[in-house]
Amino acid sequence: MVAWDRIRRDFPLLNRRLNGKRIAYFDSACQSLRPKPVIERILQYYTTLSSCGGHRSSHSLAVKTEEACEAARAKVARFINAADPSEIVWCLNTTMALNLVAQGLKWAPGDKVITTSLEHHSGLLPYWRLQEQLGVRHHIVRVDREGWLDLREFEEAMDRSVRLVSVTGASNVTGTTLPLRDICEIAHDYGSLVVVDGAQYVPHFPVDVQKEGIDFLAFSFHKMCGPSGLGVLYGRLHLLEELDSLIVGGGTTIDVEWSPNDGHVTPLFKGPPAKFEAGLQDYAGIIGAGAAIDYLSERVGMENVATRDGELGRHLLQRLLEIDGLELIGPPEPTPHRRIAVAAFRVRAGDRYIAPYELLEWMEKRTQTHCFLLRIGGHCAHPYHYSVGIDPPLSARVSLYFYNTLNEIDLFVEELDRLVRFYRSKS
Ligand SMILES: Cc1ncc(COP(=O)(O)O)c(C=O)c1O
User: Fold this and answer.
1) Strand locations in 86-136, DSSP E?
2) CA 122 / ligand 1 centre spacing (Å)
3) Is 380 part of the annotated catalytic residue set?
4) Structure confidence by residue, pLDDT tens digits, 164-212
5) Which atom of ligand 1 is nearest to the CA of 171?
6) DSSP alpha helices (H): ranges in 158-269?
7) Which of 133, 263, 317, 323 is deepest in the core (most CB within 10 A)?
8) Strand (E) or helix (H) holding 306
9) Residues framing ligand 1 (Cβ under 6 A)
């Protein structure tokens, strides 16, 4: 049994007040909160190391920085059961990792990419651009209204021209997951590679890339207790060896020859992961990412995260559905598949929908005990909203993580109820 109230005490932001009220942080699908051990490790880098890694400088603080960064890389590899730490490439975020795959593969005329209508813009636009730039065909398989992918429809879209299948592990709108192992199996049968957008998946479930058969996996530490603006591209080693890098420069080469006679520059590139990590890196972030992995796997445990997430998610849906006029964007419980504790919705009060900014304002300023920090808009998943006939700006989203409580959900639902009754009385 995890003592969740003790875990909550690890997060300094939960002890602060906003507008004179306690904070109920309901926006973890965007950025999670950070626990003290992660913050302290980042601070420790700046106060005790403050040097570069990547075998640039060779003084002792640089050597220690490099060792700490490589230890963090090895932790990430173990966390997702990668076969080798060299399969872990530091990126800015999930978006950059997905773009790296899209731009790095060597495309041939007639090649096709398959995605789904559930994807975040970061999992769609890289292929829209490939289509614009190179004529790579981009086919979007439609998920159903409730966010589930029909595997038969997916397989019908497959043929031998598909080079890449790019799917989200879990949706940041519906909270639904896609059947990754089946998708990988089907894609591989057709000779295609699979890249998984793990932005919402890796923070919530134990992941085993080898067991799932995932070729590339992208995820961001800012959604899993780690530093802002740091993510990872995992790729099978032989695939990373063949992948072109997105940017080139210092740290990526063994040598750069120059012939003054003919003016020719000849770079000799390193192998992965160094060939992708041009320029100085976010060493504080990388070391902090290692601390986030320690925190999630040792202090909390990923099985516990997944269980807690299920419990919070079920309670959230059950309570939200009690609100008269609330329309959930995604499946109500019970569902046959795993989902994360995310719920997007819109609320009707009388003859109109409550505007998202009215909801947001109420939840921060007019509540009684807590300031509820949630998200409104299209959540960078406009195609899915359009596919279910909802204007993206009309969607509100609650996204929870293991540090949230059932009581926060109850208080939120009470406030939502007050808000609906207020606007109904005015309509
Ligand atoms: C499903 C999904 N994919 C990709 C992203 C992009 O992540 P990042 O901004 O860290 O690149 C997000 C961000 O919310 C997301 O929810």
Assistant:
1) 88-91, 112-116
2) 7
3) yes
4) 999 999 999 999 999 999 999 999 999 999 999 999 999 999 999 999 9
5) 1
6) 180-189, 209-212, 237-242
7) 317
8) helix 302-320
9) 29-30, 93-95, 120, 122-123, 168, 172, 197, 199-200, 220, 231
Answer whether 72's CB lies under 8 Å from 213's CB: no
**What is the DSSP secondary structure assignment for residue 176, as one 8-state letter?**
B
Q: Which of 282, 281, 236, 298 is nearest to 79 (CA)?
A: 298
Contact assessment for residue 162 and residue 112, using Cβ atoms and an 8 Å cutoff: yes
The residue to which tokens 């880098």 are assigned: 45
pLDDT at 104 over 90: yes
Please report where in the chains the tokens 């230890």 appear, as a residue.
71
259 has a pLDDT exceeding 90: yes
Write the CB contacts of 343 (distance below 8 Å, at least 6 apart in sequence): 175, 313, 316, 317, 320, 328, 330, 397, 398, 399
R_g over Cα of the chain: 23
The per-residue pLDDT for 252 is: 95
The confidence score (pLDDT) of residue 5 equals 96
- SS3 call for 407: helix
